[in-house]
Amino acid sequence: MMWSAVRLSLQVMALASVLIGVCGLGLGIFLARCRFPGYLFLTTLLNLPLVLPPSVVGYILLLALGRGSPLREWLGLDLVFTWQAAAIASAVVALPLMVESTRAAIANVDPELEAAARTLGSPEWEVLARITIPLAYRGILAGIGLSVARGLGEFGATLMVAGNIPGRTQTLPLAIYDAVQMQRYDLANQMVVLMTVIAFALLGWVRYLEAQQPQSQRLLPGQRHEPDRAVAKNVTPL
């Protein structure tokens, strides 16, 4: 049961990481660079999975993926009680961490460096790819690390939308629950130790990235970024 759950957890997190990376990076860049009516509403909506009970998130996902949903009725995709549904649940609950970390990292990039690249004729996509993201990569990677750690431990929403089927949808947190229910404490202890080691390693990596971040990019709320003149002088034509 343990290695089957480990394999399934890695499979779920592989797909969830792709979803988190693509959606979180896109939303983080969009929220860092754009201000529009409804900005506050959208950021609040994106952070809801952090504060809602997992059972509520799982029920909303059941409505979105289950019988009567456009995804099933119009496209014929039946994802409920599959490992793909578990990956979607993990991605949804972990996405706010990726979005907020990316948004903060992008917002802290010196705008004068980006402006210098534009004056040298670089289009927006090249400024983003060669200036913005490379300067913000530590915050982006930290967001991925936190999101993977959160998604790996997802329990409630996964149980609601994917069930607890050994070998099919039973991830490590669900396997630990089953092991405790069956009083197989030795097996539960092994899985708890494994998850704790993985979570510790991911959090340690995030803290390392934060420690490597230049002091000039560690801004307090409300503090304005001071342009790094030395770096600005070194911007070369793209």
Task: Explain the overall architecture.
- The protein is mostly helical and 238 residues long.
- Helices cover 73% and strands 0% of the residues.
- It is built from eleven helices and no strands.
The shape is globular
What percentage of amino acids are in beta strands?
A: under 5%
On the 0 to 100 scale, the average pLDDT is 85
Reported for the largest beta sheet, the result is: none
**Structure class:** mainly alpha
Order of helices and strands: HHHHHHHHHHH
Any idea what the radius of gyration is?
21 Å
> What is the tally of helical segments?
11
- The percent of residues in helical segments reads over 70%
Question: Total number of β-strand segments?
Answer: 0
Taking pLDDT < 50 over at least 5 consecutive residues as the criterion, the unreliable ranges are 219-238
Distance between the amino and carboxyl termini: 54 Å
Labels describing this entry:
single chain, globular, mainly alpha, 11 helices, 238 residues
Quick rundown:
The protein is mainly α. Helix content is 73%, strand content 0%.
